[in-house]
Amino acid sequence: MLDVNGFNKRFARNAVLLLRFGCNLAIGTYRGMKLVQQHNTKFMKKTIYLLILILAVSSLAVKRADAQVFSVGVSIHVGPPVIPVYAQPVCPVDGYLWVPGYWAYDNDYGYYWVPGYWSEPPQVGFLWTPGYWGYVGGVYAWNAGYWGPHIGFYGGVNYGCGYYGSGFAGGNWVGGHFRYNTAVVNVNTTIVHNTYVDRTVINNTTTNRVSYNGGPGGVGARPTPTEEAAAHEQHVQATATQMSQQHNASIDRNQFASVNHGRPAALAVARPTAYHPANTTANLARATASNRPGNAPSHNVAPAATHAPVVNHAAAPAVHHNVAPPVNHNPAPVNHPQPQVHHTAPARPAPAPHPAPRPAPRPAPREPEHHRR
């Protein structure tokens, strides 16, 4: 005989167990999903932070390694003037390296020439890669120079004095000492004894003095694999002495292209400490549409009287070029009698007379007593 009551009790018990199991399973699943979600969120946050850190470190490393990145904040639409020709001063100290002159830019007054000079390298074995202007995206931007174990790309610009567009032909480092090629650089052999002569490196065919790479009329050179490799080596930026040289040029009125028309007064000096501004920009009007480079030159200053290169400036003060006196273009005045106009100064009111002080009245003499009766 079927025990209905026992069956119902077992069914109810199993149903309760199944319900409890289902509830526990649902709760466990929910907790598990929540834990997984929290873990994923933390993992994603950590991953994002790690990516940001990697990108930041990479950008700093690239900025340190690649010194040919365009300088921020300097971009103009007019190219710099040509590189002027000048005579290199004598090397003043054994171990100094030549830093060629270049055109820098001021936002108020336009292009100005930084004179070339002999500079002490920041480290033995380092060479100087000059900076250069490059035309990219419709503007001219400056690529800063740097010190490094090899010379990198400097736009193919012919700066002269051994920098003929690629590499440096003025010497090399051997055993911790710099050897100067006297066929290219100017040294005093009584002071500098590490010299040699190699005339095969002299560039006698290139006469292009364009001072920028790319763009209309610019140099079309591209970096070689060796120059690209040099761009990713350890670099040292321009020293404080080099920056001081550029600052002195930036406040010298005679160095601006708007005044000298591409013929600066000071082209090269023996060392940066020998260069001092002759006439500061305090007397230089801010650049306008008429005196910025590439436009009509200013008519207020006469051009330089000679194109001869600057001679040795070692231990010599800054050169002062006398400006030609202005020529009187007005014809001699004709003696026509003209009525003279007399400008009479307005009459000033006469000062009010001051009356003379009157003496105080004296008291009348008193009569004797016997006269009053």
Would you kindly provide a written description of the structure presented here, covering whatever features stand out?
The chain has 373 residues and is an alpha+beta fold. The chain has 2 domains: 8-65; 73-283, no CATH class. 23% of the residues lie in helices and 14% in strands. The protein has helices spanning 4-65, 225-230, 240-250, 257-260, 369-372; strands at 70-76, 97-99, 102-106, 110-114, 117-119, 127-129, 132-136, 139-143, 146-148, 171-174, 177-181, 195-196, 212-213. The strands form 5 sheets. A 4-stranded mixed beta sheet has the order 1-8-7-13, with no helix packed on it. A hairpin with a 2-residue loop joins strand 7 and strand 8. The longest helix has 62 residues, at 4-65. It is elongated, with a radius of gyration of 43 Å. Mean pLDDT is 73; it is low at 57-73, 287-357 and 367-373.
Low-pLDDT residue intervals, each spanning 5 or more residues = 57-73, 287-357, 367-373
Average predicted confidence as pLDDT:
73
In whole angstroms, how far apart are the ends?
A: 182 Å
Extended strand count: 13
* Main sheet record: 4 strands, mixed
Return the string of H and E elements: HEEEEEEEEEEEEEHHHH
User: Number of helical runs?
Assistant: 5
Helix content: 10-25%
| Adjacency order of strands in the biggest sheet | 1-8-7-13
> What portion of residues belong to β-strands?
5-15%
Overall 3D shape = elongated
